[in-house]
Structures are given as structure tokens and as C-alpha cells.
Amino acid sequence: MEIELKPASKYERKIFYREEWDVNNVPSFVLDSLTSREFGFDHFGQGPNDRYKTFQDPLRLKRFIKAKQPFAAYCSVAFYNNPNQRKGWQKSELVFDVDAKDVPIRTCDCKEGQVCDKCLHQAKEIVLMIKDVLKGEMGLKNINMIYSGRGYHVRILDENIMEASSELRGQIVQYVIGAKEPDLTNSLGFTNLQPFIIPYGYSKNFTKWSKYTILHLTKNSKLDNVNKKLLNDVLKHRHVLEDNAWGAFRSKIGPIRYNKVLSAVARINMNITDTKVSIDLKRILRLPSTLHSKVSMKSTLIKNIETFDPFDDAVPKFVYERK
Amino acid sequence: MIKTPYINPFSSDAKEIVSKLGQVESLDEPNPLLSNIVNHTRGQNLSDRRTLPETIKELAQARYEWFLFKKTIDSNEKKYEYLFNPDIYEYDVVAFYLLCQAIAIKYGPDSHETRLILDCEENIISQRLEILKSESNDFQSSILRKALNQLIDTNNIHWTDLKEIFDLGKLDINELLLSNGKVIIEYEDFIEEFGHLIHNRDPRTMYEVTAGVNIKSKLLLNLIRLNTKKYIETVHEMSERMVEPNPLLIELAEKIKEIQQEAQTMKYATTGNSQYIDDKPVSYELEAFPPCVRKCMQGIKSGGRNDAIVLFLTPFISYSRLCPSIFARQEQNMKISDVDPSLEITHNEIIPMIYEAAQACSPPLFKDQPQEKININSKLGFGMHSELKLDHEGETQWYTPMSCEKIKLHMPNLCTPNKDCKKIGNPITFYNRKRRLMKKDNQNKGQVDNNGD
Questions:
Q1: Is some CB atom of chain B closer than 8 A to the CB atom of A198?
Q2: Residue A99 sits in which domain range?
Q3: Which chain A residues are Cβ-neighbours of B415 within 8 angstroms?
Q4: What CATH number does residue A137 fall under?
Q5: Which of A137, A247, B95, B295 keeps 20 to 30 A from B244, CA to CA?
Q6: Closest CA of chain B from A61, distance in Å
């Protein structure tokens, strides 16, 4: 059955919250810190304007949600002493928000603001790459992946990172998504060092993301300071990157033009996640287990990202009952 | 032989020296051993003996002078050559602590003086490390290792342990080599983690190019900066419980102020008219606006409108009209009424320009988010009120223009740099530089025209 990503009706919301939603499906990383978090609700589909809500225990959260059947439910990434006033900030999860509709290198034919199987799959690929860097290079362990309804949230709860400042989070995001050209100036006199010859550290990461971005460009992609002719040349020669033949790619494009492409690619990489979400210490994010009413999908904690398929694992029952 | 305290005043040796030589009463007495080192420093200018330090207190002043006069017409490196003689390390360490204490007690940890002493120490150690570069890499590496290991374990440190260092804003995570969370600093760890990935290239060279002495130096400088900051905070806290500080420290603190004023006068004498120093209102020069500001003024699409108009454009438009040289000022905690006492310019020029950009957004910003008018007032320093009134000024801070780094994070779509953006860190710096260049161009043009006549 083909799943249509259309809005849920008020009746469907009611059915979902009465019959399907279970407070026990809210991830333990939220329930364990319930009293320290701020909750926010969107009751009418106009944005989360019912904020500063707090719950003393899961039972009260359950009663509220079952009774209100909100259009959308959110909880803070921040932990507060007084969450009902958003005061006494203690710490915040580190978050990466990959929204399929905002992936800058979508290869599907979706219209602006829409998502499809293909771009959701691409968002998943990106999340997997993010997870690799977080685990491998950054050595983080408490990494939770959530399907948000139209994309993915990566929520990190390692204690040693939760007190990080907004500025540091900005640096982490740039590292993880390869959004900054590596600075390879050195005092040894090597003036023409290229990131692709360095098989470790940030250079390796930047090269990996650059490859991903270049291989997903289309003839309609818009890159700063890259004209149509240069874009066409990139598309023509990019196949050599599949074998990581960066030297060949650079010489085919020409060194000056190659530098232009890499600068533009770094800027595209910056848009792979919503950086505003990552640096905001007081953000509220969709509450996993609840309904994304705009697309009729469940926000779902992912147990195994490799096998996760939103169209199998995040579709509410009422969607199958639609005529 | 280089002793660790010469490049790390927080080493255990340094602390021993301070307890040995740091008796307050002796700090203002002529010290023949110190004079001997100064007089026997290679390349030292001895022509004006009055300027040579004879006491540790004078040495403390000299450290500060060296840094502040560096960029003035009175800059004469040879006058302070002794600061770069490794033999001075014992007196130098005591002088450093004396200077920190004087600043902590008199001016506190958030003062301009504290920022200057942090920069001063960084510059001194940095120059000492620069001189060390004439030695072999192995020598540099081992001395840095010794100095660093007094502060961190260079064989076992997680990047999250350096959080405070990253917050100083002088070292980026992407400059470090990470593996499973561990920061790779030493060569043996580098080989263990990455050796198997390196083919057809010399691993030692790869290490030096991507980490090596460069990263060790950066880490050391940042750790010293952080420890100096913390030390000043601690001394300041303690001083608040003290009955009366030592008069020597007060004297030194006052001398520091005098040095600063002198350096300030010289700085302006040096720069003459060549800099664009506007700390009073100047007319807009729209052609000098950077590409991000121009883009924002043409209107922003739904999604990024609020941050672009409120956080980004409002500070830029207000500072570019009222005080473009904000970042050249010592005191950056300004109010609009300091430069526009009647708020006439603010009401007649600044607000209309911001509102026009808000109107150009799609959909127009105030149509669905009228509360953003209050947010704009708040970012101009007038609190969360719907009207701009002098009575409310100071309830919030007048936001300074966002740096390019922050713009890239908050509003990546806004940043489409052109060739003039190179090496620019803030749109207001772009604006000031561009205005200067435009003025120069116009003058040259004028001269050509006159010659033509």
C-alpha cells in the first residue's frame, strides 16, 4: 500500500491518541528527566503556543495528551530547575536536526516543503554519516535517533557534552557535517596541501562530506560562485570520486575552479542540518511517540537505524484504514 | 637551557619560584641578579638605562608596556629584549603573578585590563615559542610536551575536557586530531591511531603538518590564557574578603592605567587619519554595505525572517549609523543615547530602514509576527516595550553586530561572500573597510581629475 503523506484530520488525531498512543512509548531519556523538562503543545496547527508546561509524572503527561489530543507535542532539549518558567538552566541535549524537506542536495522531484520516500532515504543516509562521526571520532556514546515525521533528530545525552555552550555546539556541528574548509596552513612550507591527501582527522571528514555532496548535485543545484559551466564540468567528471580519485578530479576541473567548488560545497554542507536547532540551548523538539499531524506520521525512537523504514515503522494505524 | 616556567607560568616549578621569590616587600627593591640578566641580554638596547627594570615591580610594568607599545610609534623591541632571554624566567614568573594580582584586585576579572593582560601573556609566550622555532622540531616538541604535561595529560585527554578552551574562541575543534574522543597530541599516539592509514608519505612529516608543534603551541597558549583568567577570578574573589590590599599592588594597578593611557595616545598618533575611527554618528554609505546586509534588506523568506531582521540587521543598521567603530572602542557596553541623545536618528533613519527590510520579507514580518517590533526595540537596548523611550533604555543591551561565524550558523543562506569578504570577521568591519577604500578611491579620482584640469 502506498502511504500518502497528507495531514491528519481532527478525528484521526482523536483515534490515534485514544487507541494507539501509549505514554510508555515516550523514550526513557525523556521520561527519566520528565520533571526537569519544559513541554510545549500546538493545539490548532498554528505553532507551539501552549508552552511552559510541566509534568510531575508520566501519568499526568498521559492524561493531558489523551485529553487534549494535540496537533503537535514538543519537549525541551534543556533541563531546568524550574522548567515551568524556563529558569535555572542545567544542561541541554546536543541535537542534530535533519529535515528531509530542507536537505540542500535532494535528488528527488519533491516540491518545496514536501517530502517523499527518496528524500527521506537521503536524510537517513545523512543521519548515518552524522552518527559515524559522533561515535568514531568524537567518541560519544549516548546517541538517540528519532524519526521526526519529516526527517530525523539525533539527540545526544552524553553528560560531558550537555553543558556545552552554544558557541561550542556551533563548532561541533561544523566538524560533524564538514561545514568548514580545513585550514592546512603550516610552518613547514607545504603550500599546496589538499584535505583529500590526509586520511584522518577533520580533513578526512570534510572530504567524505564533500564527496557525498558532489555526488548528489544535480544540474539544477545552486552553488555560490559556481557558474553553470563549472557545475556542468563537476557533474561530468565527478564519477572519478566514486574511486576517491580526488587528484584526478582536481586536475580535470582545474585547481582554481576546484577551490571554488570546495568552498561552495562547504557552504552547502552547512545546510545539511538545521544549525539553529543545534546551537539553541532552549529549543523544544517534537516529542517522540507523538503524531506529526501535517504528514500523519509517528515521531518514533529508532531501535536500529540500518533497518528502519519510516513507511513500515512510523505509520499510524489510522492511515491504513483510510479509504 | 629553557626552563618550563619561561613558557608556562602555571608549572609546578613556577609555583615554587613564586613562593621563594614572591615576598611582597622585596618586589619593589632593586635586584642585582635581575639587573645582571637584563644587562647581559644579547642584543639588549642599553642606551637609556632609566628604562631598564631594576625591581620585579618594574619588570611587571615592562611586560605590560612591551605589549601595549608594540603597535605604536614608540615600539622598540630591543628595549625589551630581556623579556626574551630565557635566564629571566624566575623574575619573569613573579612579575607575571604580581601583574595579575594588581589587575584582579583593582579592576576585576571582567575588566578591559584583564583582557589586556590575557593578550599580553599570550603574546609574550607566543613570541618566546616563535624564537624557539630556530631549534629542531624534536627539541621544540619535547619542551612543549614538558610544559603541557604540567597542565594536561598529553597522552590521554578527551576533547570534551577542553570545553573551556574552545569557549575562549581561539582554538577550533577541527584543528585537533580526534580518535574515539581522544585528542591525538603526541607522535607515538599519532602513529598508533593513524600510522596504518599513511602510505607513500613520511608519517613524521604528516604529523608535523597536521598536528605536531603547531597544535602543542596552540594548546599551551590557550591553557595559559584559561589558567590566567581563572587565577584573576580567584584573586578577585579573595580580595573582596581582604581588609586592605597591599599598597604595592594598588601602585602597580595605577601605573598600569597610566601605561594604557600613554599607549592609547601613541596609538592614535601613529594611526593619524589612516584609520576609519567613527565613534559618533556618520551618514549611511549604502554602497559599502556587505552582501549579507544587502541580501537581508531585500527581504527574507519565511523561516529565517525573525533572526535575520531582529538579531542580524537591527544591530548592523544601528551601529553602522551611530557608531561604526564599536569594535575599536575600549568600552563596548554602549547605549544608543550616548551617541544619539534625542533618539532623532534612531526614530527617523534606523527604525524606518529596519521596518522597510521587515516589510520586504515574504510574508512581511510584522504581518504575522507583530511582536517582533518589541524584539527589535529590545535589541536596541530599550527593553521589551512597544515604544522606544529613553526611560526604558538599559533594560536590555544594545546588541553588537553578529560576527560572520555566527551568521553562518544562524542564517547560513544569508552568507554569500564576495572577494571583499576575505579575512573579514564581522560585517561592520567589512563596512568600515569598504568605506575607507571608497574614500581613498574618490580622493585618487579627485587628484586625477584635478591633474587633468
A1: yes
A2: 1-177+273-311
A3: 267
A4: 3.90.920.10
A5: B95
A6: 30
